[in-house]
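Input/output pair, single chain:
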Amino acid sequence: MANLVELSDGDEARALVAPELGGWLLRYARALPRQGWTEAIHFSQPVVDRYPLQMYAGNPLLFPLVSYNITGGKEHFYEWAGKVYPLPQHGFARRSVWKVLDRQASYVTMELADSAATREVYPFSFTHRVTYRLEGGRLIFTQEITNRSGEVMPFGTGIHPYFHIPLAPGSRREDCMVMLPACQKAVARPQMAGFDLEPQAATIVSVSQDVSGTLLLTDLSEKRIALLDQRGGIEVSLDWSKAPGYKHVALWSKSIDDPFYCIEPWTSLPNAFGRVADHDLVLLQPGEVFRAEIVFDIRSV
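Output:
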Protein backbone atom coordinates (compact mmCIF):
# COMPACT_ATOMS: atom_id res chain seq x y z
CA MET A 1 0.00 0.00 0.00
CA ALA A 2 1.29 3.45 -0.91
CA ASN A 3 1.63 6.16 1.71
CA LEU A 4 -1.78 7.52 2.65
CA VAL A 5 -2.68 10.95 4.02
CA GLU A 6 -5.38 11.00 6.68
CA LEU A 7 -7.29 14.26 7.12
CA SER A 8 -9.57 15.20 10.00
CA ASP A 9 -11.78 18.13 10.96
CA GLY A 10 -11.89 17.45 14.68
CA ASP A 11 -14.69 15.00 15.36
CA GLU A 12 -16.80 16.28 12.47
CA ALA A 13 -15.26 14.88 9.28
CA ARG A 14 -12.41 12.78 7.96
CA ALA A 15 -10.88 11.90 4.60
CA LEU A 16 -8.18 9.70 3.13
CA VAL A 17 -5.96 10.61 0.15
CA ALA A 18 -3.34 8.58 -1.74
CA PRO A 19 -0.94 11.05 -3.45
CA GLU A 20 1.21 8.29 -4.95
CA LEU A 21 -1.85 6.69 -6.54
CA GLY A 22 -2.83 9.54 -8.81
CA GLY A 23 -3.73 11.94 -6.00
CA TRP A 24 -6.69 9.62 -5.40
CA LEU A 25 -9.25 10.65 -2.79
CA LEU A 26 -10.26 7.31 -1.26
CA ARG A 27 -12.69 8.30 1.50
CA TYR A 28 -14.75 11.20 2.85
CA ALA A 29 -17.04 10.77 5.85
CA ARG A 30 -18.94 13.11 8.15
CA ALA A 31 -20.47 12.60 11.58
CA LEU A 32 -24.19 13.34 11.27
CA PRO A 33 -26.35 14.06 14.35
CA ARG A 34 -28.83 11.23 13.70
CA GLN A 35 -26.94 8.74 11.53
CA GLY A 36 -23.44 8.97 13.01
CA TRP A 37 -20.41 8.52 10.76
CA THR A 38 -21.58 8.48 7.14
CA GLU A 39 -19.35 7.64 4.18
CA ALA A 40 -20.04 9.59 0.99
CA ILE A 41 -17.35 8.00 -1.18
CA HIS A 42 -17.36 4.36 -2.21
CA PHE A 43 -14.21 2.67 -0.91
CA SER A 44 -13.00 -0.75 -2.02
CA GLN A 45 -9.70 -2.19 -0.82
CA PRO A 46 -9.64 -4.83 -3.62
CA VAL A 47 -9.96 -2.01 -6.19
CA VAL A 48 -7.15 -0.06 -4.52
CA ASP A 49 -5.00 -3.21 -4.54
CA ARG A 50 -5.52 -3.52 -8.31
CA TYR A 51 -4.44 0.06 -9.03
CA PRO A 52 -3.79 1.23 -11.73
CA LEU A 53 -5.67 -1.45 -13.66
CA GLN A 54 -9.05 -0.16 -12.51
CA MET A 55 -10.29 2.68 -10.33
CA TYR A 56 -13.95 1.96 -9.60
CA ALA A 57 -13.82 3.77 -6.25
CA GLY A 58 -12.81 7.04 -4.62
CA ASN A 59 -12.41 10.19 -6.71
CA PRO A 60 -9.91 9.87 -9.59
CA LEU A 61 -8.54 13.10 -11.08
CA LEU A 62 -8.96 13.64 -14.83
CA PHE A 63 -6.35 15.56 -16.89
CA PRO A 64 -5.43 16.59 -19.59
CA LEU A 65 -8.47 14.87 -21.09
CA VAL A 66 -11.90 13.82 -19.87
CA SER A 67 -13.58 10.75 -21.32
CA TYR A 68 -11.84 9.72 -24.53
CA ASN A 69 -10.83 11.08 -27.93
CA ILE A 70 -11.12 9.73 -31.47
CA THR A 71 -8.67 10.58 -34.26
CA GLY A 72 -8.68 8.92 -37.65
CA GLY A 73 -11.32 6.51 -36.44
CA LYS A 74 -9.05 5.29 -33.61
CA GLU A 75 -9.97 5.76 -29.95
CA HIS A 76 -7.47 7.08 -27.37
CA PHE A 77 -5.53 9.24 -29.83
CA TYR A 78 -5.72 12.99 -30.38
CA GLU A 79 -4.22 15.45 -32.84
CA TRP A 80 -2.70 18.83 -32.02
CA ALA A 81 -0.65 21.14 -34.26
CA GLY A 82 -0.56 18.48 -36.97
CA LYS A 83 0.82 15.67 -34.81
CA VAL A 84 -1.03 12.65 -33.41
CA TYR A 85 -0.46 11.56 -29.80
CA PRO A 86 -1.73 8.58 -27.79
CA LEU A 87 -3.66 9.46 -24.64
CA PRO A 88 -5.68 7.00 -22.55
CA GLN A 89 -9.23 7.57 -21.36
CA HIS A 90 -9.40 10.41 -18.81
CA GLY A 91 -5.70 11.27 -19.36
CA PHE A 92 -2.63 10.38 -17.31
CA ALA A 93 -3.09 12.32 -14.06
CA ARG A 94 -5.00 9.55 -12.28
CA ARG A 95 -2.15 7.11 -12.97
CA SER A 96 0.69 9.45 -11.98
CA VAL A 97 2.53 10.01 -8.70
CA TRP A 98 1.61 13.35 -7.15
CA LYS A 99 4.09 15.19 -4.92
CA VAL A 100 2.92 16.40 -1.50
CA LEU A 101 3.72 20.11 -1.16
CA ASP A 102 1.99 20.83 2.14
CA ARG A 103 0.18 18.73 4.71
CA GLN A 104 -1.65 19.70 7.87
CA ALA A 105 -4.28 17.94 9.98
CA SER A 106 -7.20 19.16 7.87
CA TYR A 107 -5.69 19.55 4.39
CA VAL A 108 -3.15 18.29 1.89
CA THR A 109 -1.81 20.05 -1.22
CA MET A 110 -0.36 17.93 -4.03
CA GLU A 111 1.29 18.74 -7.35
CA LEU A 112 1.74 17.01 -10.67
CA ALA A 113 4.27 18.58 -13.04
CA ASP A 114 5.22 17.71 -16.58
CA SER A 115 8.01 15.21 -17.12
CA ALA A 116 9.76 13.50 -20.01
CA ALA A 117 7.08 10.81 -19.88
CA THR A 118 4.14 13.26 -19.99
CA ARG A 119 5.72 15.34 -22.75
CA GLU A 120 5.82 12.28 -25.01
CA VAL A 121 2.00 12.20 -25.03
CA TYR A 122 1.22 15.82 -24.09
CA PRO A 123 3.90 18.27 -25.33
CA PHE A 124 3.34 21.04 -22.79
CA SER A 125 5.00 22.26 -19.61
CA PHE A 126 2.59 22.63 -16.69
CA THR A 127 2.01 22.38 -12.97
CA HIS A 128 -1.25 21.01 -11.64
CA ARG A 129 -1.94 21.59 -7.95
CA VAL A 130 -4.83 20.09 -6.03
CA THR A 131 -5.82 20.66 -2.39
CA TYR A 132 -8.29 18.63 -0.37
CA ARG A 133 -9.38 20.52 2.75
CA LEU A 134 -11.92 19.66 5.45
CA GLU A 135 -13.76 22.69 6.75
CA GLY A 136 -16.96 22.76 8.78
CA GLY A 137 -17.59 19.12 7.92
CA ARG A 138 -17.40 19.77 4.18
CA LEU A 139 -14.62 18.59 1.86
CA ILE A 140 -13.32 21.36 -0.39
CA PHE A 141 -11.41 20.51 -3.56
CA THR A 142 -9.35 23.31 -5.10
CA GLN A 143 -7.39 23.11 -8.31
CA GLU A 144 -4.76 25.29 -10.00
CA ILE A 145 -3.35 24.45 -13.42
CA THR A 146 -0.56 26.69 -14.70
CA ASN A 147 0.66 26.80 -18.29
CA ARG A 148 4.45 26.98 -18.14
CA SER A 149 4.83 26.58 -21.89
CA GLY A 150 5.52 29.36 -24.34
CA GLU A 151 2.37 28.52 -26.30
CA VAL A 152 -1.34 28.02 -25.74
CA MET A 153 -2.02 24.83 -23.76
CA PRO A 154 -5.24 22.90 -24.52
CA PHE A 155 -6.76 20.53 -21.98
CA GLY A 156 -9.84 19.08 -20.38
CA THR A 157 -10.12 18.33 -16.69
CA GLY A 158 -12.65 16.98 -14.25
CA ILE A 159 -13.32 14.80 -11.25
CA HIS A 160 -14.86 11.32 -11.13
CA PRO A 161 -16.32 10.72 -7.64
CA TYR A 162 -17.84 7.31 -6.94
CA PHE A 163 -20.58 7.95 -4.40
CA HIS A 164 -21.55 5.12 -2.10
CA ILE A 165 -24.96 3.60 -2.84
CA PRO A 166 -27.00 3.37 -0.69
CA LEU A 167 -25.80 6.02 1.74
CA ALA A 168 -27.39 4.51 4.85
CA PRO A 169 -27.47 0.97 6.27
CA GLY A 170 -30.86 -0.59 5.64
CA SER A 171 -31.52 1.51 2.55
CA ARG A 172 -31.69 0.13 -0.97
CA ARG A 173 -30.58 1.48 -4.33
CA GLU A 174 -34.26 2.11 -5.10
CA ASP A 175 -34.36 4.56 -2.17
CA CYS A 176 -31.71 6.80 -3.76
CA MET A 177 -32.26 9.56 -6.31
CA VAL A 178 -30.42 12.41 -8.00
CA MET A 179 -31.88 15.93 -7.87
CA LEU A 180 -31.06 17.60 -11.19
CA PRO A 181 -31.49 21.33 -12.00
CA ALA A 182 -32.86 22.50 -15.33
CA CYS A 183 -30.25 21.86 -18.01
CA GLN A 184 -29.72 20.48 -21.49
CA LYS A 185 -29.04 16.86 -22.31
CA ALA A 186 -26.11 16.39 -24.70
CA VAL A 187 -26.80 13.56 -27.16
CA ALA A 188 -23.75 12.35 -29.05
CA ARG A 189 -23.65 12.05 -32.82
CA PRO A 190 -21.85 9.05 -34.37
CA GLN A 191 -18.15 8.84 -33.46
CA MET A 192 -18.69 11.72 -30.99
CA ALA A 193 -18.40 14.12 -33.92
CA GLY A 194 -20.67 16.55 -32.10
CA PHE A 195 -23.60 16.79 -29.71
CA ASP A 196 -27.26 17.71 -30.11
CA LEU A 197 -28.85 19.47 -27.14
CA GLU A 198 -32.27 18.64 -25.72
CA PRO A 199 -33.81 20.94 -23.05
CA GLN A 200 -34.53 19.16 -19.78
CA ALA A 201 -36.56 20.62 -16.94
CA ALA A 202 -35.46 20.22 -13.33
CA THR A 203 -36.11 16.61 -12.49
CA ILE A 204 -35.46 13.69 -10.16
CA VAL A 205 -33.61 10.68 -11.56
CA SER A 206 -33.68 7.33 -9.79
CA VAL A 207 -30.27 5.80 -9.14
CA SER A 208 -31.87 2.55 -10.32
CA GLN A 209 -32.02 4.01 -13.84
CA ASP A 210 -29.32 2.52 -16.08
CA VAL A 211 -26.71 5.17 -16.93
CA SER A 212 -23.96 2.76 -18.01
CA GLY A 213 -23.98 4.55 -21.37
CA THR A 214 -23.31 7.88 -19.56
CA LEU A 215 -25.86 10.67 -19.27
CA LEU A 216 -24.22 13.95 -20.35
CA LEU A 217 -25.69 17.28 -19.21
CA THR A 218 -24.71 20.87 -19.97
CA ASP A 219 -25.93 24.44 -19.45
CA LEU A 220 -27.05 23.64 -15.91
CA SER A 221 -29.15 26.39 -14.33
CA GLU A 222 -27.41 25.64 -11.03
CA LYS A 223 -23.98 24.07 -10.60
CA ARG A 224 -25.07 21.86 -7.76
CA ILE A 225 -26.37 18.30 -7.79
CA ALA A 226 -27.58 16.37 -4.77
CA LEU A 227 -27.78 12.63 -4.23
CA LEU A 228 -30.55 11.75 -1.78
CA ASP A 229 -31.02 8.55 0.19
CA GLN A 230 -34.68 9.11 1.06
CA ARG A 231 -35.10 6.21 3.48
CA GLY A 232 -31.83 6.96 5.30
CA GLY A 233 -32.46 10.73 5.43
CA ILE A 234 -29.02 11.53 4.02
CA GLU A 235 -28.04 13.91 1.23
CA VAL A 236 -24.63 14.10 -0.44
CA SER A 237 -24.03 17.06 -2.73
CA LEU A 238 -21.48 18.51 -5.13
CA ASP A 239 -21.34 22.27 -5.62
CA TRP A 240 -19.08 23.65 -8.37
CA SER A 241 -20.50 27.18 -8.53
CA LYS A 242 -16.93 28.42 -7.93
CA ALA A 243 -15.57 26.46 -10.88
CA PRO A 244 -16.53 28.58 -13.91
CA GLY A 245 -14.55 26.41 -16.32
CA TYR A 246 -16.63 23.36 -15.42
CA LYS A 247 -19.52 23.51 -17.88
CA HIS A 248 -20.76 19.93 -18.04
CA VAL A 249 -21.57 16.96 -15.84
CA ALA A 250 -21.65 13.24 -16.54
CA LEU A 251 -23.83 10.75 -14.67
CA TRP A 252 -22.52 7.18 -14.84
CA SER A 253 -22.57 3.85 -13.08
CA LYS A 254 -21.04 0.62 -14.36
CA SER A 255 -24.35 -1.16 -13.77
CA ILE A 256 -27.45 -0.92 -11.59
CA ASP A 257 -25.99 -3.63 -9.37
CA ASP A 258 -22.73 -1.93 -8.40
CA PRO A 259 -22.58 -0.13 -5.01
CA PHE A 260 -21.70 3.27 -6.47
CA TYR A 261 -23.01 6.12 -8.62
CA CYS A 262 -20.85 8.79 -10.28
CA ILE A 263 -21.64 12.50 -10.62
CA GLU A 264 -18.74 13.98 -12.60
CA PRO A 265 -18.27 17.71 -13.29
CA TRP A 266 -16.15 18.18 -16.42
CA THR A 267 -14.78 21.14 -18.38
CA SER A 268 -15.45 19.45 -21.72
CA LEU A 269 -17.56 16.78 -23.36
CA PRO A 270 -16.02 13.62 -24.90
CA ASN A 271 -13.80 13.87 -27.99
CA ALA A 272 -12.93 17.49 -27.26
CA PHE A 273 -9.71 17.39 -29.32
CA GLY A 274 -11.51 15.64 -32.18
CA ARG A 275 -14.40 18.11 -32.42
CA VAL A 276 -12.38 20.76 -34.26
CA ALA A 277 -15.37 22.89 -35.27
CA ASP A 278 -17.03 23.03 -31.84
CA HIS A 279 -14.44 21.89 -29.29
CA ASP A 280 -14.82 22.95 -25.66
CA LEU A 281 -11.20 22.56 -24.61
CA VAL A 282 -9.73 24.99 -22.11
CA LEU A 283 -7.12 27.04 -24.00
CA LEU A 284 -4.71 28.37 -21.40
CA GLN A 285 -2.38 31.18 -22.42
CA PRO A 286 1.32 31.08 -21.47
CA GLY A 287 1.67 31.87 -17.76
CA GLU A 288 -2.11 31.77 -17.22
CA VAL A 289 -3.62 29.86 -14.27
CA PHE A 290 -6.86 27.87 -14.41
CA ARG A 291 -8.64 27.78 -11.02
CA ALA A 292 -11.59 25.82 -9.71
CA GLU A 293 -13.25 24.96 -6.40
CA ILE A 294 -15.70 22.11 -5.84
CA VAL A 295 -17.39 21.43 -2.51
CA PHE A 296 -18.45 17.98 -1.28
CA ASP A 297 -21.01 17.92 1.53
CA ILE A 298 -22.94 15.34 3.55
CA ARG A 299 -25.97 16.30 5.63
CA SER A 300 -29.08 14.93 7.28
CA VAL A 301 -32.40 15.78 5.66
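Helices lie at 45-49, 116-121. Residues 5-300 form a domain with the Beta-galactosidase; Chain A, domain 5 fold (CATH 2.70.98.10).
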